Amino acid sequence: MLGLLAVLAGPGAAQAGAAEPETTVGDLTGFSADGAVYHLKAGAAEARVSFVSAETFRIELAPDGAFSDPTGDDIVLPQGTPPPTRWKERSDRYELSTAGLTLRAYKSPLRFALYRADGTRVWSEAKGLSWNGERTTQTLARGADEQFYGAGMQNGRGSTSHRDKTVEVGVDYNWDDGGHPNSVPFYLSSAGYGVFRNTYAPNTYAFTDPVTTSAKEKRFDAYYFAGDSAKGVIGQYTALTGKPFLPPVYGMEIGDADCYLHNANRGERHTLDALKVADGYVEHDMPNGWMLVNDGYGCGHEDLAETAKGLQDRGMQLGLWTEDGIDKIADQVKAGQRVAKLDVAWVGAGYKFALDGCKDAYKGIEDNSDARGFTYAPESWSGAQRCGVQWSGDQYGTWDYIRWQIPTYAGATMSGLAYTTGDVDGIFGGSAKTYTRDLQWKMFLGTTMTMDGWAASDKQPFRYGEPYTTINRDYLKLKESLLPYQYSYAHEATKTGVGMVRPLVLEYPDDPKAATDAAKYEFMSGEDFLVAPVYRDSTERDGIYLPKGTWTDYWSGRTYEGPVTLDDYSAPLDTLPLFVKGGASVPMWPGIRSYKDRTAGSPLAWDIYPQGRSSFTLYEDDGVTRQHRDGKYATQRADVDAPVRGAGDVTVRIGASEGEFTGKQSRRPYEFTVHTGSAPSTVELGGKLPRLGSAAAYKAAEQGWWYDRDDRGGVVKIKTAPLSTGKKFAVKLKGTSAVGGRAAAASAVVSVPSGQEVGAGAQSTVAVDVTAGSADVTDAQVGLEVPEGWQVGRAATADRIPAGTTRRVEVSVTPAKDATAGEARITALVRYRSAGESRTATQRFAAGVMPPPPTGEVWASDLVWLKSANGYGPAERDRSNGESGAGDGHSLMLAGKTYEKGIGTHADSDIEVYLGGRCTAFTADAGIDDEINGYGEVAFSVEADGKVLWTSPKVTGASATVPVDVKLDGARHVHLKVTDTNGSRTGDHGDWAAARFSCS
Fold first, then answer.
1. Which tens digits make up the pLDDT trace of 587-633?
2. Strands (E), 486-558
3. Residues 621, 625, 627, 629: what is their CA dihedral angle, to the nearest 10 degrees?
4. Which CDD domains does this entry report, sorted A to Z (predicted)?
């Protein structure tokens, strides 16, 4: 309600009274020049053009001739001396020019058009500026192929073109798909320009033909930017409104938020209890950078200094939610606060309040400590990129939530928002699977946090048990190892305005698919990582688009040549589809839990995918203080010279580290993983480095190299003794290759048929397909890497697989007797020879572990559920659907009859059970639970092995109970589904009462 009132009463709210008719500016009646500022009169109206730089200018229009500027100096920063300009009058127009641009002001009627110095048109108004009592509108002609991006955080949109769409820009407090929290009144065009409306009023942008953009105020005020690329336009916009801030390094680690004092959901606790949760991260060897200890309605705090010290002792920092405003921030920061989360409904009504809150909290941290300001906000505005992270608000943990957040954050980068994120698995609902999948891809955002206290149970990444805890740890530590890469991009954003998380169109503007839905659910993390999150309950991912170039699967080492679209990509629960661009050189911190684990002797690792000539510049500073603003930082460049394709030498040149800062390493060891796919003859660092014969020998040695043919298609691993950071050096790999190997086309491909099942404790077989490339595969041996406690039979062999053909082999595997039913990850590993080389190919895949099939008469609620998707909260055993926790439903009741056994769900739901062909019939009473009092409308269905066996008529809360009696002869997998039938899920509590299987 607070949010709604803010929208209704906030800036730009419509004035009461009769609507004023639309007025379009008339003919030019006066012109004057004052340096780089030009005045153009049209009757009572006056326009003003002010040049800021050679490629940036401002147009204002005052319908009554009286200019105003409600934003003052809040958003636009001082810009220095205006550029030299000149003007010329022609018969039909005035031409206002800098060295690079000419703005035409046509006389009759007054209408603007922008041209480059070479005479090409950038944009033109289809008609003059217009206004009524509520809003002012600009109308632009739309180019035949022109695409549009920006408008800030647009939930579910933004990474692909806004063409033919209308987007709203304003405070809406809508955290769902289609909402627009953290709006920015800026958009950019593929025609090479951008527009920023300098206002606190809400905007509407219709990218139709023609394009109409309006702000809800009776004044016009817009800045225009012209550039050769989208990155250049973003750079100009952020030069005007502020470059993104540089977060502290702990701010790029995951954060944790909860309420500890007066927590109604968790019982009475105290602020110091946060330290017990912090201990959980340490004990589970999981990174965590900071903790908000009062994130909840009515949640206070106490013992701040002691809590802050305890967190710092555990490698974390204290954060606070600003429920009560920020007037006490000075004392809180002095006590140890380093993070401020700003929910603007509580510090103001959005727009100016939100921006002021961001700036004031940021300044409060910096004025009272030596730390950098670091804030989170869910409803910000232009300029907030210079003081905080934009967070997408309170959301539910669902697969759909994952799906639409992908374009949301990637698209926000097109508006100069360098740090956008959402809570891992939302704050409501969620599950172990959705949490794990959501956490995976959010490790490739710059910032993120997990939020507790509102779901049925806490949401720390170690709460769900195995295999989820291990998978979550692996991805948290992967992010930790990538901090040098991500932090270097954070620094780059302070110079360019371009964030690390990018839609494909930003890196591949000439690719016709990059602006379309083909690339909507993937993004670039920097220039080198392409991330395609899994957003369905599936172990495969379809529709992964790889643009032009060579792309290496991060997990298997398989290379692809783009442009190409991948379907049926094998993605077991622990596998995020992740690809690395050919030529990448990725700096890493290996093996750490916290950035504080780094010591003077810690190594710097480079993960290199050699292809042609490429480079990466590492940025380093102390990570915490503001001394970098005074020049206390260092950069170190890695240059790689390799073949573009095939065989040749690879040279990695590491330059001297230039610059100084407190804590800089004067010497450090280096490690390199060079993805060649072919073993080098020698590796040199000055002289020859010793070649090591095993993983153990490599681990024990101070210096040397080892070619690991089984690691991701073949990786050269190199380590050095400590070297001076002040001196350059080169590592030369002789007689090796570019990424993919000497004969990349001859590489074999391993694939695995989907849907394979094995029984707990039962001997089974797993099928593996081996496809030869451009040369015959010989001496192939196919083995499996399986979970601990499983047994694998002898490796299967294939003496020869002719080029271009596929051979299927089967390997025996016996899962542990106590193997958990559900998905298990297996890795197929194939060692073979092809094109004169010994190679290895690997493939991760998921096998379904099936429980023993049921016997006799068995209740559905007593079986193992392979799947239990539910529309709200968890599906319940022997209870009606409850709230967000398991076991919080009521007794099952249909038509006045109470049932002891059954399943309580909420549409849309899907319960999957494994019968193994042993059952003959399913019976139940189906209906909407009496507790709904007549509401709801659903349909029930029973499906088996992909076929629909039975479907009910529409059932309402007032319907009679529907008897279910379905024959199941031979069915292996049965799905019990409840589906919404009227588009409203209110009251859709579908019960499978007395649900029972009859089995042999």
1. 999 999 999 999 999 999 999 999 999 999 999 999 999 999 999 99
2. 501-502, 523-525, 529-531, 540-541, 544-553
3. 90
4. GH31_N (cd14752)
In a 3-state reduction of DSSP, which class is residue 983?
coil
Length of the chain: 1000
Average pLDDT over residues 884-890: 82
Tell me the two tokens of residue 972.
């292996």
**The two structure tokens encoding residue 367:** 């004025």
Summarised one tens digit per residue, pLDDT across range 324-352 is 789 999 999 999 999 999 987 767 777 99
Q: What is the mean pLDDT of residues 528-555?
A: 97
Give SS3 for 663. Answer: coil
Give me the phi and psi of 309, to 5 degrees please.
-65, -40
Q: Which residues contact 199 (CB under 8 A, 6 or more apart)?
A: 12, 70, 71, 185, 215, 217, 219, 221
> 113: Cβ–Cβ under 8 A, 6 or more apart, which residues?
103, 104, 106, 121, 123, 124, 125
Among candidate residues 674, 702, 704, the one with its CA nearest the CA of residue 689: 704
- Find where tokens 């360098």 sit: 418
Q: Which of 360, 367, 371 is nearest to 250 (CA)?
A: 371
Residue 167 dihedral angles phi and psi, to the nearest 5°: -120, 140
Q: How far apart are CA 318 and CA 309, in angstroms?
A: 9
> In degrees rounded to 5, what are phi and psi of residue 697?
-65, -40
For residue 199, give the DSSP letter.
-
Helix axes of 304-313 and 274-283: crossing angle, nearest 10 degrees: 0
Cα(348)–Cα(74) distance, integer angstroms: 16
Q: Counting Cβ atoms within 10 Å, is residue 145 exposed (0-12), middle (13-18) or buried (19+)? A: exposed
Which letter does DSSP use for residue 416 in this model? T
Query: Worst-scoring range by mean pLDDT, 346-355, 401-410, 959-968?
Result: 346-355
What pLDDT shows up at residue 19?
Answer: 67
Question: Peptide bond before 467: cis, by omega within 30 degrees of 0?
Answer: yes
Query: What's the whole-number average pLDDT of the chain?
Result: 95
Spatial CB neighbours of 742, under 8 Å, sequence gap ≥ 6: 646, 647, 677, 678, 736, 835, 837
| β pairing state of 569-570 and 56-62 | unpaired
Q: How far apart are CA 894 and CA 366, in angstroms?
A: 62
Write the DSSP assignment of 60-97 as a string of letters: EEETTS----TTTTSSSPP--SPPP-EEEE-SSEEEEE
Give 102's DSSP letter: E
Q: How far apart are CA 51 and CA 82, in angstroms?
A: 6
Three-state secondary structure of 722-776: CEECCCCEEEEEEEEECCCCCCHHHCCEEECCCCCEEECCCCEEEEEEEECCCCC
Measured distance CA(626)–CA(338) in Å, rounded: 13
Contact between residue 190 and residue 147 where contact means Cβ atoms under 8 Å apart: yes
Q: At what angle do helices 432-442 and 399-412 cross, to 10 degrees?
A: 10
Tokens 């004067």 — which residue?
666
Average pLDDT over residues 171-185: 94
Q: What is the pLDDT of residues 420-456, one digit of tens each?
A: 999 999 998 888 999 999 999 999 999 999 998 788 7
- Confidence band of 18 (pLDDT split at 50, 70, 90): low
The residue among 29, 70, 61 whose CA lies nearest residue 129 is 61
Q: The tokens of 829 are what?
A: 């590993």
Helix (H, G, I), strand (E, B) or coil at 864: coil
